[in-house]
Every structure is written in structure tokens, then in C-alpha cells.
Amino acid sequence: MSRFQWLPDYLAGLALEHVVVLDGASAQPSERGPAWHLRLEVEDWSTAARVAATTGCRWAGVWGDHLGDAIEVRACLELHGDYLVLATRVPLAQPVLASHTPYYPAAERLERHLQDMLGVAFLDHPDGRRWTRHQAWREQDYPLRTDFPVHGRISRRTPADADYPFTRVLGPAVHEIPVGPVHAGIIEPGHFRFQAVGEEVLRLEERLGYVHKGIEKLAVGRDAEGLARLAGRISGDATVAHTWAACMAMERALGVGVPARALTLRGVFAERERIANHLGDIGAICNDVGFGFLQSQFSRLRETWQRSQHAAFGHRLLMDCVVPGGVACDVSDDALHLLASQHDQLDREMDDLMPIVDDYPSLEDRLCGTGVLREDDARTLGALGYVGKASGIDYDVRRDHSYAPYDRFSVPSPCLRDGDVAARLDIRAAEIRDSLHLLRQLCDSLTAGPVRSTWPTPMGGSNDVTESEGLGIVESWRGEVLTFVRFDANGLVARFFPRDPSWFAWPALERLIAGNIVPDFPVCNKSVNASYSGHDL
Amino acid sequence: MLRLLNKIRRTGIVTESVCANIESQALGLEVKRQIERRFGGSLAIRQIDAGSCNGCELEIRALDNPYYDVSRFGVHFVASPRHADVLLITGPVSRHMETALRRTLRATPAPKYVIAAGTCACSGGEFGVSYASCGAVENVIPVDVKIAGCPPSPTDLLSGLLSAIHAFGSR
Question: How far is B122 from chain A (nearest CA, A)?
Fold first, then answer.
């Protein structure tokens, strides 16, 4: 399944730098764990990242796990669809680790998150400010440490995080525009701090974390079903993808097989979720430049799409439809026929509407050349999904690190180079067509059979940590979701870390808005449409 | 332009009457009357996400689509709490949003009504009370009406909203 042709080069690079790989040979990829694992000394952490950057790896996430008197820190890297997990154990007595950010700017916020949640200090990190922590817990408290109570240690009202030190741009005529956390529309909360001259944005700084709900902490002690329910509420618009990634991680951890019919149905759910969100976004992008007609049309299409999901699967957003070991409900042949007729219908609607989007001069005027994310920026920031694909990053987990049911099909994935709002809209439109094509194939290939396998009852007694953890990697509509789950000996969740692609889309927004005018921020933001909740956890 | 007009003509009007979950169309008429009498013909809602997963937002936004077209009842969503009659709040209240929520309520002119929408806003839902979450909206500010559902469908929201307006009107 995985090739890892680049790994010998990487290992040779490490050897040249005198990095000792403590354990790597015994943790080779398998069906249950497709990533390669390398264990390193704490002092080699930075060198490993530097060599990975020269090898060309993409940085895909970092997370920590409090184990006794140490914090196990892992970073995930990817190249050519092969995943490599680096691990090291940082002693609590001296919780200091070199930062990956100097080599991978994408690591910046996730390392700050890890610092706030587990108390690992990152050396050579360019930004020592808190990130996920506002005022709900004290600086010396680390919610993800096992001794931190889930109810916290503070009972008073939580004050506003008023003294967060934003970066100022100084100069004549530079003014600051604070926006949020409560925004002017029906959207999630977050704070944006613009530094502008007249209409032009010199710099945007985001302050997120407002919807931090302690998801990683709440996961601890849950059983598989409870975790799947929680994962479905990480980001409501990506409920299928997150639940799937969490279930995949749990299934790999315990070696649970999923019936073929269930896997195909998961694919159907995920593609339908992609289409629903893209329909909503295309309408909203056009609406943000004042073209209400397309908003009406696309929101109408989204509504009919959601209604048929409710009719066929029982939920308008497909929440809780993916469950550990399979899917929650089967679908009748009649319902399938109805869904299939909707595929052709949506194709025809797209035939009607996309020429209007493409040919309308005022749309072209507002969307083309607006909010450009350059390819090198996209690569540096690790942009995924339509944000990456619009800026020349041709990566799609379904195709490049294929998993069932996609391994049976050739998955098309569009890629453009303009990097502007128009390109991100075009990628969405192309993905709608591609997903419709996939949906037809998925529906045609549905074979009869069970839709859920029985979940193993925990036997207890096994203390082998590597035996009970798993990594789920799924292409959500926003791009790659990476989810780590570790079970304890009782079969309950001990660690859950879902990395939404929004972690990399938010910094991209900061980058692409510079030089644009303040009134174009809504349409730029919508074209990126990163999840606040998926990021804040 | 012709293409555009043609599409509008062929799409026609898809807006539906709101009988589904409401006892009768009479309630709809009564609500319109109450909005006329109590709110000068228009009810302004300020939606606040106090910590939701964004599922509720998707369904609230759907209220504006051509099928539900909530503005026909005189209901519309506004950008500022200063313009609002009603606060429609979703999510468990995250501790990081606690102060922002109180301040938004304070910025809303009286009479102000608070609706908690969605399971999390009603009871804390999957998140409950923790180091990061205050749980239900009523743990932070007084709530007048609750609309359950995870997320509540647009029909749930619409009927909840209409009965809420009815309740406000008869107060």
C-alpha cells in the first residue's frame, strides 16, 4: 500500500547529522497503521525537522500525550502520500523541546496549542504568546495533563482576554480595526485585528480560541461510540469527515474490520458533505460581492440536497451516520434510486449556473485577482483542500494515500495556480462535478451485506501502548483530517487529537488578505472558509 | 442577462407555507399580527455563536434560503445587537465567550428576548460544563425560549421562532 521510496534518503540524511533513531525498524507500516514511526532523542527533534524539510516533506501536525513523568510528543510528516510519525519523550522535569517552526512555519500555532495544553516549551519558537488559552485557566495549568480536573480549577466568571499583545504596525495614517469575536453575520466567533492605511490592509492578525470547548479533554474516558459522537461535533459542517477519521483511528487501533457496504456508504456520506458545503460556499462567495441571484440559486440547491439526505439517511447534515465499525443505518434500493436521480439533476443545474458565474463581468471584476495566495506561501503554510488546490498544491488524501472505498476508483482532483478567490471558487465547482461522478460510481458499486461490524469488548490487561493506538487520515471537504486515538487498557479513550485542515487555512488567510482592501475581507474569508470550531477544539 | 432571467423564470417560486410543525396557519397569521403590534412590523434577530460546532449556524442560515424565506414574516437577521429585539444563541457557552456574550446582551436595547437554539444551548449537549465550557446558555444569561435539536432543522427553528414571538407578544 505505501511506498516510502524517499525514506532511505531521509534516514541517510539523519545519519549524516548523527541523529540516532531509537526505534524505527519495528514500527513499519501495515494495514492497521499505514504511517512509519521513528523514535528520536529529544535533542534531535529540531535536526529531524530540518532534514525533513530538505527532503521535501510536508509538515502535517504535532500533538502531545501525557504519559506518567513524561510527555510523548509526536509530529506527522507527509511526502508523496506516505506518512511518517516522529516521536520523542519530553521529561516533565524539564519540558522543553526544540521548535519545528523555523523549518516549518505551518507548525507555529499547533506548537503554541501544545504549549498551552500540555506545558511543553518550544525553544526557538518565533512567537511565545499564548494561543488556545485565554483566561479560562491559569498560565501554570495545563488542561491536557492527567492531573488537571476536567472541571478546571477556576470557578469565577471568565474575563475577556483583554491584554493579549497584538502586533502593531506603526506609521503615519496606519489605523487599527478590531473585529469580533461577535461577528456581523451568522458565523462563528473569532477576533480579527486589521492594520490598514485607508482601505488597504497592511496586516491581519487573527486571534482564535473563542470556541475552545475542551474537546481533547472531554474525549478522555469515553468509549468508542461516545468518541464518535464527540468527533461529529468538532466542526458541524465536516461532521462526516471528522467522525470517519476518528472511527478509522479507533478501528485501526483495535483491528476492527468494516464491512464493504459500510465503507462505500461512508464514501457516499463524505462526497455528499463535500457537495453540500461547496454549494453553500459558491452561493455565499457570490453573495459577498452583492450577487444575490446566485446565493438564492445555490442555497436552493443546498436545501434540496440536505432534504434528500434527511429522507435517505435520517439527518440533514449526516451527523452520527458514521459509527465505530460501520454506519448507523442502511439505505434502501428505492432511496438509492432517488439519490441517483438527484445526481443528474444537480449536474444539469450546474450546467445552467456555472456559465453565469463564469461569464458575469462584475463577478470576474470582484473575484479574479482578489485574495491571492501564492504557491510558495501555500506550500510553506501547508495549505490543504481547495485552498491548496487553488494555489498549485496538488494533494488529495483520497488519491495520494488512498483508503477504502476510494482505493477502487481513480479519484480526480482539480488543481489551479492562480490562487485567488475565483480559483478557490472554480476548485469548488470542479469538485462538485468530480464528487457527483464518484457518487455515481459509489452507488453503482454498492453490494449487499451488513453495514456494521460488532465492536470488540475490551479485554483489559494489555499494557502495550503501541497495540492500542491508531491514526485516521481522511480527506474532508476542507482537505486532510488527521486524527490520533489512543485507547487505555480498558478500551476507553486516553488521548484524542483531531487535526482539522483549518489549522493551516487560517494562517493562509492572514497571508492572502495583505494588500487587499478591507471591504474585500468577507469574500476572501468566505473563499477560505476555515472552521473556527474545528481549529479551537 | 437573458440566461439569468430564464433561470429565475424556470425556477419559479419554491417558498413553502409553514404548516409542517405548526398547529395551524392561524399561528402564522397570529405571529404576523404580533410582530405588527409589538415590534412595529419587523423583528430583528442578532444571532450569537457562543461556542457551537457551526452545525446550528448552517441551519439558521438556511432560514434565509428561498424555501423558508424567513423575512416574509417580518423576521430578519441584523449585524449589531444595538438593532436587535431578539438574541438567538447557539452552542454551549465556551468560557472564552462568556464575557463577550454578557456584553452583547448588555448592548441589546430592552425589551430583549433570548432564545437558546440547539441541544448545546439548551442543555450543554455533548460538551456540558467543563474547564472550557459553561454549558447551557441559561447558566450565563436568562433564557426566554429554547429550541431543541442537534442541530434544529430550519422547520424546527421556524416553528420555534414563531411560537416564541407568539409568547413574547402575549406577555
Answer: 16
Where residue B50 sits, what CATH number does that domain have? 3.40.50.12280
List the single residue in A with minimal CA-CA distance to B80. A184
* A236·B52 Cβ contact <8 A: yes
pLDDT at B26: 62
Provide the number of structural domains found in chain B. 1
Total residues found in chain A within this entry: 537
Higher-confidence residue of A520 and B162: namely A520
Q: With an 8 Å Cβ cutoff, are B58 and A237 in contact?
A: yes
DSSP A147-213: TS-TT-S--SPPPP-TT--PPP--STTEEEEEE-SS-SSSS---EEEEEEETTEEEEEEEE--TT--
Which one of B54, B65, B131 has the shortest CB-CB distance to A137?
Answer: B131
Of all residues in chain A, the one with the smallest CA distance to B89 is A186
In chain B, residues with a C-beta closer than 8 Å to the C-beta of A135 are 95-96
pLDDT of chain B, 171 residues: tens digit per residue: 888 888 888 888 887 765 554 544 566 677 777 788 888 888 999 999 999 999 999 999 999 898 888 888 888 999 999 999 999 999 999 999 999 999 999 999 988 999 999 999 999 999 999 999 999 999 999 999 999 999 999 988 888 888 888 777 666
Assign B48 to helix, strand or coil.
Answer: strand
CATH code of the region A7-123: 3.30.460.80
Q: What does the domain layout of chain A look like in residue ranges?
A: 7-123, 223-368+397-501
Give this complex's ipTM: 0.93
CATH architecture of the region A223-368+397-501: Orthogonal Bundle (1.10)
**Given this model, what pLDDT does residue A467 score?**
58
Domain that holds residue B103: 2-169
CA A146 to chain centre: 25
User: Distance between CA A312 and CA A343 in Å, rounded?
Assistant: 14
Q: How far is B166 from chain A (nearest CA, A)?
A: 23
Q: Does B1 touch chain A (CB under 8 A)?
A: no
Distance CA A54, CA A70 (A): 30
Cell digits of residue A274: 463535500
Q: Cell for B117?
A: 437554539
Please state, rounded to an integer, the average pLDDT across all residues of chain A. 92
